[in-house]
Predict the structure.
Amino acid sequence: MRVFGECLTAELPTPAAHGEVIKEYDAELYDRQSTHLDSIAEFQAFLGDHLDGGGPWEIIDAPCGTGLAGPILKPWARRLVGLDLVPAMVSQAERLGCYDDLLVGDLLDMLPRLRAEMVVCHGALYYFRDLAPIVAAVAACLSQGGYFAFTDFPAPEGVMATRGGNARFCRSPSLVRELLESNGFAEVASELRLSFTLPCLYWIFRKR
């Protein structure tokens, strides 16, 4: 994690526009990348360690991408909804048959209109320079006692970004905890694991 921190900068770039995010993802190639499959396996293990025996819940997978998380979430789901910004990704997810409903749209716009007992956000929060709007959207969507499970790349302090290429935003654990707690969440679990071969914090919070 110390080495990863040395690859970050405190000079924060402008977040990618929606169009840039859509262009970055090739739905046909996404599922063939072993790093994506490995990251889902890590997420499944993390959820299993802390949520086994729970559910079934109304779950929103946001963003759902090509639906890689669908099969691992289905055992906990009474109803599983996928939401993604990229239409081609949603079309790919539909082929799996795991989701009860699939929606195309922006998380910030859509989540407050939906209701769930669990929101999962795996491998996407690094697009958000400011997590406050997404946390507020999740809080508006979740019922009391609902879970928010997500991954986020760590930073030594505050908010930082990866250097070069397509920037990813990273946050210190203390910042994440403070933000979630100030929005009415209590921490259930956190672990440092790998995601896309990089050190990553896996989190579960529960809405009080």
Q: What stands out?
A: The mean pLDDT is 87.
